[in-house]
Specification:
Blueprint (H helix, E strand, L loop, with lengths): L1 H8 L7 H8 L3 H13 L3 E5 L2 E6 L16 E4 L5 H10 L7 E4 L20 E7 L9 H19 L4 E3 L3 E4 L2 E13 L2 E11 L15 H5 L5 H17 L6 H8 L6 E5 L4 E9 L5 E4 L5 E4 L3 E4 L8
Parallel strand pairs: 3-4
Antiparallel strand pairs: 1-2, 4-5, 5-9, 6-7, 7-8, 8-9, 10-11, 10-14, 11-12, 12-13
Helix pairs in contact: 2-3, 5-7, 5-8
Length: about 300
C-alpha cells in the first residue's frame, strides 16, 4: 500500500484524499494513517485541504522503494549485523537474492573479525546467493560484487571507484566500501553464499577509522541508499542470469589499484613483500618476489607501498 500511495504521489501534484481512497480501494481514514506512517519514516508529504503532495523522499532502502526487488528486501532500522540475519534466513530456505538491509549495525563485521563502523547514513546489506557453482568458484563472487558496486558508484556520482585487493573499494585513496562473504557448501555443491557490503554514503567513518572516506565527503552529493542498492542488484543479478560470473576477473583487473605496484601482504602468520602481478581465477594475489619467484597469497591485509599511478 505504501508503494501504491507513493506511485500516485510521484507526479509532484497534489492528490486528493478522495482520489487516493477511490483508486486504492481503502477508506480516507486508512489513507491518512498510511500518509502519517510515511511521514514518520522520513517522507516529506505536504497536507492541505486539497490533499497530499510528495515533496521529498528519505532515500532509505525500504522494500517498497526497491521496485522489482521489493519482495526480496528485508529492511531493519537496526541490527547486530546484516550477515547474522541473512545467515538465519539462508538456513530457513529463503530464495536467492533475498537482501537484508540495515539503517545501522551495532556489531557490523569486517574482514578478520574486525568491526565495520555502521552509523546511520551508510548502506549496509547482505545478499543471499544460491549459485550453481562449485566451492572452488565461489571466490569469484566477491570480485564480481566489487566490480558491480564500483561501476554503480561511478554511474551514479561520477566517482573513479577503484579496487584494492582483496575486497576494498577506494576513491581518491580513501576507502568507501568493503565486502565480506560467508559460504556453506556440501562436497562439490555450494548451498549458499552470503555477500555482505558496507558503503559509506553520508556517514563519516573517517573520524574514527584512518583512511576511510564517504561519498558525501568526497563529492558533496547525497546518494540515496535505495537508488544505489537497486542499481547494484540489477547489475549483480544480471551477471548471474547471463552466466557472466567469470567475466568479473578481467573487469576487476582493469579497475585494480593493486596490480603492478609493490605491496606488503600480512597474513595471520606471515608477511610477504613483492610486486602484485595478477590475481588467480579464485581471487588469490600473485606476487613477484625479490628473487623473481612467484608467490600466490590467498588472503591477508594488503598495503600499497607507494602512491598509485594516475588512471590511464
Amino acid at each position: 500500500m505504501k508503494a501504491a500511495i507513493l506511485r500516485m504521489l510521484e507526479s509532484n501534484a497534489t492528490v486528493s484524499g478522495n482520489r487516493l481512497s477511490r483508486k486504492l480501494g481503502i477508506s480516507r481514514v486508512s489513507v491518512w494513517k498510511h500518509i502519517r506512517r510515511l511521514q514518520e519514516l522520513g517522507y516529506v508529504i505536504e497536507t492541505s485541504s486539497r490533499g497530499y503532495r510528495l515533496v521529498d523522499r528519505p532515500g532509505v532502502a525500504y522494500p517498497w522503494e526497491m521496485g522489482r526487488w521489493q519482495d526480496l528486501v528485508r529492511y531493519l532500522d537496526e541490527t547486530t549485523s546484516t550477515m547474522d540475519e541473512a545467515l538465519r534466513l539462508a538456513h530457513a530456505g529463503c530464495p536467492a537474492f533475498t537482501t537484508v538491509v540495515a539503517g545501522r549495525q551495532s556489531r557490523g563485521r569486517g574482514r578478520l573479525q574486525r568491526r565495520w563502523e555502521s552509523e546511520s547514513g551508510g548502506l549496509y546489506f547482505t545478499v543471499v546467493l544460491r549459485p550453481a557453482i562449485s566451492p572452488a568458484e565461489a571466490p569469484r563472487i566477491n570480485l564480481a560484487a566489487a566490480v558491480d558496486l564500483a561501476v554503480a558508484l561511478e554511474n551514479l556520482c561520477g566517482l573513479e571507484a577503484r579496487l584494492k585487493w582483496p575486497n576494498d573499494i577506494l576513491v581518491d585513496g580513501r576507502k568507501v566500501a568493503g565486502i565480506l562473504s560467508q559460504m556453506e557448501a556440501e562436497s562439490d555443491r555450494v548451498a549458499f553464499v552470503n555477500v555482505g557490503l558496507g558503503v559509506n554514503l553520508s556517514n563519516d567513518p573517517g573520524r574514527v577509522v584512518p583512511g576511510a572516506g564517504s561519498v558525501y565527503r568526497l563529492t558533496g552529493r547525497k546518494i540515496a541508499a535505495s537508488v544505489l542498492l537497486k542499481q547494484f542488484l540489477d547489475r549483480f543479478a544480471g551477471r548471474f542470469e547471463r552466466g557472466h560470473l567469470d567475466r568479473a576477473l578481467e573487469h576487476w583487473r582493469r579497475l585494480s589499484l593493486t596490480l603492478g605496484r609493490p605491496v606488503t601482504v600480512v597474513t595471520l602468520r606471515e608477511r610477504y613483500r613483492g610486486i602484485a602481478k595478477d590475481i588467480t581465477e579464485d581471487g588469490g594475489l600473485i606476487l613477484e618476489m625479490d628473487d623473481g619467484t612467484l608467490k600466490t597469497v590467498a588472503y591477508g591485509d594488503c598495503f600499497h607501498n607507494r602512491p598509485a599511478e594516475p588512471p590511464k
